[in-house]
Amino acid sequence: MGMSAGGGSGGLTNDINVTPMIDVLLVLLVIFMIIVPMSRKAIDTQLPDPNPQPAQPNVSPDQIVLEILPDNKYAINKEDVPKDQLFTRLKSLYDPRPEKIIFVKGDTMVNYSDVIFAMDQARGAGVKVIGIAPK
Predict the structure, then answer these.
(1) Other C-beta atoms within 10 Å of 63: how many?
(2) What is the pLDDT of residues 21-63, one digit of tens each?
């Protein structure tokens, strides 16, 4: 859009130059496209169904439940495991298994970092799916 002052061809013309604004927008778009995926940090988990079916009292013997207890104590299927032996115990359990599924059950009094540590150890031992045990 132009404005001309005077009737001659050598008059003044005022135009809005949008090229610098478009350049700035494109640079911001590229910056956000790079930063957003890098800021996401997540651990894939499977949460229980919010409307659970009636619980079956028998636990399948092939299911492994990792319990995180207070005072840096861990238990695999009710068997106490020291923190420094957690990885080797999980590795020995999951190496021969075709299905690499574990259920993690954290006590309400433990720190979140202890639960994440146990999940990291399980992931390192070869677990592919981590499920959170319902209350």
Answers:
(1) 13
(2) 899 999 999 999 988 877 777 777 777 777 766 655 555 567 8
pLDDT tens profile 61-104: 678 899 999 888 899 998 999 989 999 999 998 888 888 899 99
The structure tokens listed for 115 are: 């639960």
Supply the pTM of this predicted model. Answer: 0.57
Strands 65-69 and 73-76: antiparallel
**How far is it, in rounded angstroms, from Cα 3 to Cα 123?**
67
Residue 45 DSSP SS3: coil
CB contact at 8 A, 20 and 26: no
Place of tokens 């404005």: 3
- Cβ atoms of 105 and 67 within 8 Å: the answer is yes
Rounded to a whole number of angstroms, the CA Rg of the chain reads 29
